[in-house]
UniProtKB/TrEMBL annotation:
<keyword id="KW-0963">Cytoplasm</keyword>
<keyword id="KW-0325">Glycoprotein</keyword>
<keyword id="KW-0206">Cytoskeleton</keyword>
<keyword id="KW-1015">Disulfide bond</keyword>
<comment type="similarity">
    <text>Belongs to the sarcoglycan beta/delta/gamma/zeta family.</text>
</comment>
<dbReference type="GO" id="GO:0042383">
    <property type="term" value="C:sarcolemma"/>
</dbReference>
<dbReference type="InterPro" id="IPR006875">
    <property type="entry name" value="Sarcoglycan"/>
</dbReference>
<dbReference type="GO" id="GO:0048738">
    <property type="term" value="P:cardiac muscle tissue development"/>
</dbReference>
<dbReference type="InterPro" id="IPR039972">
    <property type="entry name" value="Sarcoglycan_gamma/delta/zeta"/>
</dbReference>
<keyword id="KW-0472">Membrane</keyword>
<feature type="transmembrane region" description="Helical">
    <location>
        <begin position="34"/>
        <end position="57"/>
    </location>
</feature>
<protein>
    <submittedName>
        <fullName>Sarcoglycan delta</fullName>
    </submittedName>
</protein>
<dbReference type="GO" id="GO:0016012">
    <property type="term" value="C:sarcoglycan complex"/>
</dbReference>
<keyword id="KW-0812">Transmembrane</keyword>
<keyword id="KW-0735">Signal-anchor</keyword>
<keyword id="KW-1133">Transmembrane helix</keyword>
<dbReference type="GO" id="GO:0060047">
    <property type="term" value="P:heart contraction"/>
</dbReference>
Length: 290
């Protein structure tokens, strides 16, 4: 009872002229105005942010299936239209829409790398503005059926096509040797084997056959043309055989001159013509053999 008595006494000692005191709770004055201003500013920022978010969603074409040209399907990601990647793209498979082509465009070059488990480059394909370069152990070109058309490695280059056609005006240049079972020109086209500064040698273990079925055959050289057969013979089989530039012997027999000549052979293999007589005149015209 002691606290209650003291409270009563306290109330009785207060002056009777003063009424009960009221204490105001809240924010008033300039503080209240600042608070309302900040709340209004916050509401404006929220509305602007919401409007910008809706505008971005509308422009970027966000849907439940994806964003813009990017669509999320059961098989993966689907891009429609032109797409630009500023950073490396890692994918298991890249394919175009059925019936449409797949294009790779770059301002400088397009590089395709094949890596192993240690991220070491095994095969590389670089397509640039000046050249197309391929790096690998072997390069092959095959048909749809799997037939080999072209292959190249460190040891050899193989052309598997039935016909190799070279359309250059200067022909084909082989710095060293060429091995082939047949060299043939196109129908109604001439075939020319030429060595401008060196010799031209044709060798075969079982013989060399040169055949021109519908035209002429010409062999031209600057110094020597040699036909050599080590174990066999050289046969010239034709309706007419002409040697128009053989030298003539200097001896002229007495009596009536004839227009008949005989072919003489020197010890060194040189041929010359000698005006025929009653007997052989080759022994007389030996000045050509000197």
């Amino acid at each position: 009872m002691m606290p209650q008595e003291q409270y009563t006494h306290h109330r009785s000692t207060m002056p009777g002229s003063e009424g009960p005191q009221v204490y105001k709770v809240g924010i008033y004055g300039w503080r209240k105005r600042c608070l309302y201003f900040f709340v209004l500013l916050l509401m404006i920022l929220i509305l602007v942010n919401l409007a910008m978010t809706i505008w971005i969603l509308k422009v970027m074409n966000f849907t439940i299936d994806g964003m813009g040209n990017l669509r999320i399907t059961e098989k993966g990601l689907k891009l429609e239209g032109d797409s630009e990647f500023l950073q490396p793209l890692y994918a298991k498979e890249i394919q175009s829409r059925p019936g449409n082509a797949l294009y790779f465009k770059s301002a400088r070059n397009v590089t395709v790398n094949i890596l192993n488990d240690q991220t070491k480059v095994l095969t590389q394909l670089i397509t640039g503005p000046k050249a197309v370069e391929a790096y690998g152990k072997k390069f092959e070109v095959k048909t749809v059926s799997g037939k080999l058309l072209f292959s190249a490695d460190d040891n050899e280059v193989v052309v598997g096509a039935e016909r190799l056609r070279v359309l250059g005006a200067e022909g084909t240049v082989f710095p060293k040797s060429i091995e082939t079972p047949n060299v043939r020109a196109d129908p109604f086209k001439e075939l020319r084997l030429e060595s401008p500064t060196r010799s031209l040698v044709m060798e075969a273990p079982k013989g060399v056959e040169i055949n021109a079925e519908a035209g002429n055959m010409e062999a031209t050289c600057r110094t020597e043309l040699r036909l050599e057969s080590k174990d066999g013979e050289i046969k010239l089989d034709a309706a007419k055989i002409k040697l128009p530039r053989l030298p003539h012997g200097s001896y002229t027999p007495t009596g009536t001159r004839q227009k008949v000549f005989e072919i003489c052979v020197c010890a060194n293999g040189r041929l010359f013509l000698s005006q025929a007589g009653a007997g052989s005149t080759c022994q007389i015209n030996t000045s050509v053999c000197l």
